Task: structure prediction
Amino acid sequence: MADAGPLIRKLENFAPLCGDDKRALDALMAREVRRYGAHEDIIHDGDRPDRVHVVLDGFACRYKMLEDGRRQITAFFVPGDFCDLHVFILRTMDHSIGALTPCTVSLVPREAVLGLLDRPSLARALWWATLVDEAVLREWVVSVGRRDARERVGHVLCELHMRLRAVGLADGGACELPLTQVELADALGLSGVHVNRTLQELRAEGLIELRGKRLMILDAARLRRAARFDPNYLHLDREGVGRDGDGGGRG
Amino acid sequence: MADAGPLIRKLENFAPLCGDDKRALDALMAREVRRYGAHEDIIHDGDRPDRVHVVLDGFACRYKMLEDGRRQITAFFVPGDFCDLHVFILRTMDHSIGALTPCTVSLVPREAVLGLLDRPSLARALWWATLVDEAVLREWVVSVGRRDARERVGHVLCELHMRLRAVGLADGGACELPLTQVELADALGLSGVHVNRTLQELRAEGLIELRGKRLMILDAARLRRAARFDPNYLHLDREGVGRDGDGGGRG
DNA sequence: CGTTGGTTTGATTAATGTCAACGCACGTGG
DNA sequence: CCACGTGCGTTGACATTAATCAAACCAACG
Result:
């Protein structure tokens, strides 16, 4: 049931892929698939993995623990996301990757990814994806460093909704969001209690609805304004089309 | 006087470069050089630059402004750092890059960088450099999200000192650090006043000396412990040597 | 039912921000 | 050589945000 659909949809936010490209991705993602339970680690700090992990289904995160138990989540992974393309160069992991919900993950050997890169359109698309990941990370720093709790919470909800929509997992203003408040807190640099109160505030103002594992954005315009959310950093606007691309074509 | 030395020294923390590699870098960096004054923007949010910028001399930063004037710095650039390799794929800048001190910057056209990538050893080294930048950014999130002011300030000082040492710009525990307290604050997600008090605390404990534009780490072990600084995320330990590189053997 | 994981609440405290003033070094122009 | 302006660092008083602690609550589930 979990397939390469989200990944393909995501990459096509950069530029359309041809049939062969999609078939190559499909084949690769199906080669070796593993399931992880909620809270199970997919890769652990200090590991030296030899395969790349792609989330096909479920939510995962990148995180780092301090010795005294404080945790900081530095990325959320949704279906279609690569977890650890760095494996190609950096020997040892300097952080962990864990499943937040039960996850289906494709394990792709290094060489197979290198094979993908022989296709210039895919090489560009994958490069785009990693650059967007970096842009998301930069925005994360801005949130945690300079936005107050309301803005942070609102911002991350806007972002997750957009990213889920980009892989076909949102339906109007609604999407599945199976994150606990403490997980949100660990991502936003807040305490669980404070996230709770902030969510209540946003709910009370009629901006969102968040019950169980479902998020509904009730007033997108107002929420964005409240959170000072500007989606340009997600680069979802087909920046790769009509490119006179020497950009990738080597080989 | 500004040359490619720091860049070369930095890349050799990953793996040694051959003479041809170094000459190629030297030649490229010398092609077009510009000077920027302190506080001058090198690239502005929204720009679509067509050249890549490498800092040869001076300090610069990546930052993002919020409409109401809050600023978050998301990276410090020291000599040897690439500012914007993303230019290859992402069309428009989603943030700005500014000189913190007077800077000498090399402007390298896209195609010239692509030429560099034809040398497998350089391609790997540059890839390594961008992955380390990302790792630094992740650590930045951890600091801002979960470390208190003391730890943040101590951590960034440890990091900057190590990075400067990696490009040959530290001499024992000392290095030039021409950053104002407000600039540090904007990087750490703190107020200028609070950075000031925190620095005084670190000074009073005999951990550092920071006067004028010079930093001296007086007790590295204790400072690291106080800041919970673990340098592994900088990946400066020659991870690229002895790699059975499919990436292509170098002559 | 009793457990468990997650959410909610209230009371209190700690960390950090804000504001406003002052000092100090440096450079510049008279 | 001095007066002045400017940018940064430093201080103190005070405001505010968010953390902490502890308990209660709720729904899902075996």
